[in-house]
Amino acid sequence: MNPSDTTTVIGFFTGDGFAGYADAVAGIVFLIMLATTLIGGIIACSAERLVRAVSGLALCFIGVAAIYYYLNSPFVAMMQMLIYIGAVCVTIAFAIMLAAPEESKKNGPSGPLSGPLGLITAGLVTMGMAGLAVNTTFSVLPKENMGEVKLIGVELLTSYSMVFELVSIVLLIAIIGSLVIARHGRSK
Amino acid sequence: MSILNLHNSLNTYLILAAILFGMGVYGLVTRRTLVGMLISSELILVASSINFMAFNRFTAPDPTVGQIFTLFIMAIAAAEAAIGLSITIAVYRNYKTVDTEDLVDLKG
User: Does A134 score more than 70 pLDDT?
Assistant: First the structure.
C-alpha cells in the first residue's frame, strides 16, 4: 500500500481481485449497521421502560462498534464491545435493578422541554451540526502510517504515557469514590 | 455517489454523529429519571467518539492519535457510569425516588 495515496482512502474491504463484489457486500453490511445504530439510539432515548432503553443502548453500541471497524480501527471496535456493552450497559442495568426507577407513580415525560419542544431542540441541534459538517471543506493531510495496533501500543507508552497514567488514576479514584458514595448511609 | 459506497465518505459519519448527539440531547431534556439521563449522556459521548474516529481516518496524518483519544473517552465514560450509578443509589437510599422532579432540596 502506498501511504501517500490519500485520494482513495484505504479500507479493509477494498480488495483487488473481487473488488466489486466485496465492495457491494461491505456497503450492504454498512447500511445494516447504520440502521442498527439509529434504531438503537431511538429506542435508547425514547423508550418508556428503562430496561428497554438500556437494551436499545446496547444495540446502538454494537452498531457503533461495527462503524469503528469500517473506520480502520478493529482494536477500538473490540474495546467498544468490551467497555461499553460489557461494562457500561451492565452497570446501568444494575442501577435500574438497585434503584428501581420503574416504581415511579407518574409515567411519561413532563416538564417544559418535553414533547414537541424537546424534539424541536434536538432537531435544531442535529440540523445545525450536520449542516456545519456538510458545508465545511476539511483539508486532508497525507497519512504517515496506517494506525496499526502495534503503533497504538507504542504511542500509548511513549508520547501519551502521562495521559495513560492519569486515566488510570481517574479510573481508580472513580471506583473508590463510587464505593464511598454508595456505601454512605448504609448502616445495616 | 452510490448508496453502497457510503462508508467511504466523511459526511456519512459526521451526520450519523450529529443524529446520535441530537438523540442524546432529546433524551437528556425529556427523561424524568436519573438513569434515563445517564443513558442519554452515553449517547452523547459515543457521538463525540464517532466524530474523533471519522476525522482520524479521513483527514488526520497520524491515525493512531484519534484511536488513543477514543480509548481515553471510553475510560472516562466508564468512570462516569460508575459515579452515576453510585450517585443514583445514594439518592434512591435517601429519597426513595430517582425522579428528577422530586429532588428539589436545593431549589430555594
Answer: yes
CATH numbers and ranges of domains, chain B: 3-95 (1.10.287.3510)
CA pair distance A172, B83, nearest whole angstrom: 11
A5-19, A95-109, B83-97: range with lowest mean pLDDT:
A5-19
Phi, then psi, of A95 in degrees rounded to 5? -60, -40
- Give the pTM: 0.86
B94 touches chain A (CB under 8 A): yes
pLDDT at A28 over 50: yes
- B41 interfaces chain A, CB cutoff of 8 Å: no
Beta bridge partners of B33: B99
Q: Are A60 and A37 a contacting pair, CB within 8 Å?
A: yes
- All three cell numbers of A87, joined, read 461494562
What is the pLDDT of chain A when averaged over all its residues? Answer: 83
Nearest to B99 among A104, A118, A125 (CB): A104
Amino acid at site A24: A
Interface pTM, i.e. ipTM? 0.91
d(CA A106, CA B61): 52
Q: Per-residue confidence at A102, pLDDT binned at 50, 70, 90?
A: low
User: B95 CB near a chain A CB, below 8 Å?
Assistant: no
What gap in Å lies between CA B87 and CA B72, rounded to an integer? 22
Could you tell me how many helices (H) and strands (E) chain A has, helices first?
Answer: 7, 0
Q: How far is CA A159 from the centre of its chain?
A: 25
